[in-house]
Amino acid sequence: MISRPPSCIVLGAGGFLGTxxxxxxxxxxxxxxxxxxxxxxxxxxEGADVFxxxxxxxxxxxxxxxGHEVVFHLVHATTPQSANRDMIGxxxxxVVSSLALLDISRTLGVKRIVFVSSGGVIYGPAKRIPxxxxxPTDPISAxxxxxxxxxxxxxxxxxxxxxxxxxxxxxxxxxxxQIPRKHQGIIAALISRALDDESIQIWGDGTVVRDYxxxxxxxxxxxxxxSDQSGTRIFNIGTGQGRSLREVIAAIERQLxxxxxxxxxxxxxVDVPTSVIAVERAREVLGWVPKTSFEEGLRETIGWWxxxx
Length: 309
What we know:
The chain has helices spanning 16-28, 58-65, 80-85, 87-108, 142-161, 186-195, 215-227, 245-256, 280-286, 294-307, and strands at residues 7-11, 31-36, 49-52, 70-73, 112-118, 165-170, 172-174, 200-203, 209-210, 212-214, 234-237, 243-244, 262-265, 274-275. It is an alpha/beta fold. It has a domain at 7-174 and 213-239 and 275-291: NAD(P)-binding Rossmann-like Domain (Rossmann fold). Strands 3-2-1-4-5-6-11 form a 7-stranded parallel β-sheet, with helices on both faces. Strands 12-9-14 form a 3-stranded mixed β-sheet. A two-stranded parallel ribbon has the order 7-10. Helix 1 links the parallel strand 1 (7-11) and strand 2 (31-36). Helix 4 runs parallel beside helix 5 and helix 6 packs across helix 10.
C-alpha cells in the first residue's frame, strides 16, 4: 500500500496486543502514536508518541489520529461476559465510538483501518471445524454481535466513502504483556496464579476447545494486513488447531513442574463448546502462517511471568 514505513496510530496501545504491536512498529522504523486511556507497560512504548485519551471522546480521538495514515483499531470496551450484562452500554462504548472513529478517519484522510475482531465469538456454535471466514456468523454473546456490527460498518464506509480497511478475526492470543483482567486471558491467569500459589476459578468442566495463538504471530498478521494489496477484507488469524482447557492446564503443569489449583464452576451460556478457525485464506492472500508452536509460546510466556517476580 505504501512504499515507505507508514505513520501509524495504535488505538488501545496500553493493552496486551497494543503494547506488542507498538514495540514491533517502532522497531520496524514506522512513526507510531500510542493512544490509550491507561498504559500498563509505559517503558515498553519507548520510541512511540504516547497520547493519553479515551476512545469514547471523539475530540481526543480526532486530535490523536490527525496526520496518521494507518489506524490499528484494537479497542473494545467490554468482554463477552460484561457485554451481556450491559448490552446498551456495550453498543454505546464500542459500536457508537467505532462509528465516530470511522467518520473521523474518512474526514482526516486515513488510508487504512485494521480492525481486530474475534475469531472466538463471531461464528457462534459453528457447524464446520475449523471454521472458515465464509461460515455463517451467529454469535451467542452481545460482544460478538457488537464486533460483527463494527465489521459491517467498516464495509459500509468503504462502500459509501471509500474508506479502506482490513478485519482480522483473531482466535485466542497469549504471550508476554498479557495481564489477566476482566476475566480474559486464561493462559495468563493460569500461569500468574500458579506462580503465586493461588487457586483459579474456571467455568465449565474443561472440555471446551479453543484455538490459541502466540502474540508475535498476531503482530505479524497485523503488519501483513496493513500493507495488503488484495481485494480481500476479512481474515481469520489462528493456528487451525484446537486444545481443550484441560490440555492447556496439563501443558502448563508440565512446564511449571507443579499442579494447578482449580476451582471448577458451572459452565456459562456465552461459551461455545468448540472454537477453532481455518487460516488458509491468510496463508494464501497475506502470505502469513503462524510460526510459534504452542509449547514454545508457553515457554516464552512463563519466562516473561517469572522475570516479573
